[in-house]
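pasting for ref. prot 1 ->
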Amino acid sequence: MKGLSGDAAFLKLLQIDPHIKCVLSSGVTPDEELLTTLEKHGCRFIEKPFNINQLSNVLESVIRG
């Protein structure tokens, strides 16, 4: 979403669909509040840099719930 940070976009998406499945990625670890919110909604965070196996594992865990 143009003009929003990743965490702000995630929170907006939750308002639209509380059951959204997503993975956020950044080179900076988010604060504990955002990590808790992600986990509460079945979403995940992966810190850059990551390899294809790490990404695959995170995506699989989100898809499977």
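and prot 2 ->
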Amino acid sequence: MNRIFLSGVACVGKTSVGSRLAALLGCRFFDLDAEIETFFGTSIERLKVRFPFPRSFREEASKVLAHLLSKPESHRCVVALPPSGLMEGYWQVVKSAEAITVVLQDTPENILDRIVFFDVDSRPLKRTLTDTEKRLYLREIRKDVTYFKRSYRRAAVIVDIAGLGPEDAVLKLCDSLSTSHLELGVASRCSQ
């Protein structure tokens, strides 16, 4: 196994599942958002303000992914990509890497239950949503699912983790990799 890239909409569980998968496989885990913030020395939100369009931000941020993949410690790893991780500049880097691409899917309702809010400096905020806010965020999650759907078809494996906790999601991901015969090394380590 060289690399596994996890993608999916925000709050689908890429970081939770990815970190557990990396621990199971005995390899490094990288959250690309955290790597971008470290590389640029500022939060994602502050960084996005510097770029007039989301595409220009993604192009610049994809350079961080390329930089990460050039490091020796990234040769065996799991990387949690942002929701746009299989688009544009990110996709150019991902498709040239020796890796398995996986998209995690869940229902919009389950994703809403996991939604986390951050301030402009990426510090988590405690927030309770009103019923009206829940409806609005649920609509936004559905829009994201629709928007990214085409790019997610590029993934080698799509895993529906609806209703699963992180541990069970990892097991289902391992089973999907094994069933797909994509990475026998991953499948054998998952079953240990």
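Strands lie at 3-7, 28-31, 77-80, 100-105, 117-118, 124-125, 157-160.
The longest strand covers residues 100-105.
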